[in-house]
Amino acid sequence: MKIGVRAHDYGKREVEELAELLHDEDYEAAQLALPKAFIGIDRYEDITSEKLERIRRAFEKQQVEIPVFGCYMDLGNPDPEVRAYAVDTLKKSLTWAKELGAHVVGTETAYPHLSSEERKQWKPFMQDSILRVMEEAVRVDMRLAIEPVWWHPLEDLETTLGIVDRVQDAEHLRLIFDASNLLKDPKGTDQDRCWTEWLEAIGTYVDVLHIKDFSLDRRKQYQTEALGAGVMEYGAISRWLQKQNREIYLLREEMNLLFAKEDIEFMRKL
After folding, report:
1. Is there a contact between 72 and 33 (Cβ–Cβ < 8 Å)?
2. C-alpha to C-alpha distance for 23 and 30, rounded to whole angstroms
3. In this model, does residue 185 exceed pLDDT 90?
4. Eight-class DSSP state of 114
5. CA distances from 149 to 34, 57, 183 (A)
6. DSSP state of 258
7. Is the dihedral of CA 248, 110, 132, 168 positive or negative?
8. Count H helices, E strands: the chain?
9. Interatomic CA distance for residues 5 and 31, integer angstroms
């Protein structure tokens, strides 16, 4: 098990500065969304082989692995132009990620919070987009990792298993598991049962877990919390992790410097 972080939570920095900082903060791995993490890359269109090699060397020197090349795209959007851009950018990212030495290209399946009806409408578009990107993943021999989120088209276990069954390629299709993004009703959910069900069903596809915690204020507005201080229950996830005999990456999202060190210890104890 390796402990990492979403790199741009530390702000946008020069390549070598960010790599050294993450090493000094005691992280073994980092999720990189290049336009958010590095000065000099403002769009995916700014990525070049020279910049990728600079990043690869800097992170290799600091012994910080890159499990996820982050390229979160609106894969289910009904607008064909938006969807075409998403598919094309993800296809390019598969090659960029391979050059960088990343483990997977990670994406969610939408940007906005969708209603139940919208999620239903967006699902066929999402499925078509994933299948198109998977063709490229197989061609370049790189892995695409999709992340279920309850307010996106890839909203639940049934839909996720449907995609897995449709693709039938565990070598090139992987999953990022973020339990907090699946917790629609904290008070009404038996988290132990829920996360056990998820991980028993799709755990063999999961190499990366996003770890975060949150609370809801009186207006039910989302508030980030230190790990263990919010509504998330990680018991079932910890039991699953302890049974694994392969490399799993735990990546802290929504890092806060006020309790970053304590969060690292929390993840290690998992």
Report:
1. yes
2. 10
3. yes
4. P
5. 22, 33, 9
6. G
7. positive
8. 9, 10
9. 6
Beta strands in 194-253 (DSSP E): 206-211, 213-216, 222-225, 249-252
- Distance of alpha carbon 71 from alpha carbon 109, whole angstroms: 11
> In sequence order, what are the residues at sequence separation of 6 or more whose Cβ sits closer than 8 angstroms to the Cβ of residue 210?
6, 147, 176, 177, 178, 180, 181, 251, 253
* pLDDT for residue 248: 97
Average pLDDT over every residue of 236-240: 98
To the nearest 10°, the Cα dihedral for 238, 243, 244, 248? Answer: 10
pTM of the model as a whole: 0.96
What is the SS3 assignment for 6? strand
Compute the distance between CA of residue 126 and CA of residue 18 in angstroms, rounded to an integer.
34
Provide the token pair at 42.
């403002």
Which one, of 164, 269, 207, lies nearest residue 31 by Cα?
207
Which of 75, 68, 76 is CA-nearest to residue 94? 68
Closest CA to 166 of 150, 184, 154: 154
Amino acid code (one letter) for 262: E
